[in-house]
What we know:
Elements (H helix, E strand, L loop, with lengths): L2 H13 L2 H9 L7 H13 L3 E4 L6 H11 L4 E5 L6 H5 E6 L4 E6 L6 E5 L6 H13 L1 E4 L2 E4 L5 E6 L12 H4 L4 E4 L5 H11 L14 H12 L5 H15 L13 E3 L3 H17 L7 H12 L4 E2 L1 H5 L4 H11 L4
Parallel strand pairs: 1-8, 1-9, 2-5, 5-8
Antiparallel strand pairs: 3-4, 6-7, 10-11
Helix pairs in contact: 3-11, 10-11, 11-12, 12-14
Amino acid sequence: xxxxxxxxxxxxxxxxxxxxxxxxxxxxxxxxxxxxxxxxxxxxxxxxxxxxxxxxxxxxxxxxxxxxxxxxxxxxxxxxxxxxxxxxxxxxxxxxxxxxxxxxxxxxxxxxxxxxxxxxxxxxxxxxxxxxxxxxxxxxxxxxxxxxxxxxxxxxxxxxxxxxxxxxxxxxxxxxxxxxxxxxxxxxxxxxxxxxxxxxxxxxxxxxxxxxxxxxxxxxxxxxxxxxxxxxxxxxxxxxxxxxxxxxxxxxxxxxxxxxxxxxxxxxxxxxxxxxxxxxxxxxxxxxxxxxxxxxxxxxxxxxxxxxxxxxxxxxxxxxxxxxxxxxxx
Length: 330
């Protein structure tokens, strides 16, 4: 480690101390979802939106709401339904009889942290309005364009069980999410802790604000400065290229199982997410373990399996694991 990197590392260790304060506050009300919490913080620090997939009742809404409270930001939850309109999301122009003119009524998208609950319940027009706001960080109402406040993070959820009456997100739109997280059931020990916390004689403690949005914006700037070695760049490129041309990497068995590999957005997001992960671990540089930890979350919604893969019940996760086993670690 050269001198400059040592200086950077010490700076990151100091600047990332507030992460522990956020985690300790969230653990007052959240039990056993440490991975989800880390990924939410990764998205916040790396400026990437997140798609959460899991059955109801796994504390997704509670976690997101609690995170917003710890950083003292505005949180809005939007329940996506089949009758939702784009105007219900972004806002509209309303005629004011007193002034004889139209006034802008801003929608719930004007917040720092948005929970788009069951995003696949609404038709394409509404999904497109949300995804445009995610990508452009701005909203157009009438003739005026309004910038969305920073930090701005969208967490969309979808229920993997029910497919009837839903509008699945097209692959090109899913690609706009930095991470797709699968939220699993808690372990038996964790469920016992949840029972004790939620059914005890005392209500769970209130989550307090421990940082400000300004802290988060500063941290985002610092995350960009985290060091990534050229060998890590080659490692990431090999992983992504192995999803497109598996036969080049001795993964001939994957060739008929993948219709489309990951886009260049996967490479960018994997490196940016790895930087945020290093920050969460109070480190000023990215290591291969950061890439391995986040690989599945960055790639699972970017690899399109073939009909043959589905017929043989080979999942995208199986393919990603296979790729990581074969690609040499720097």
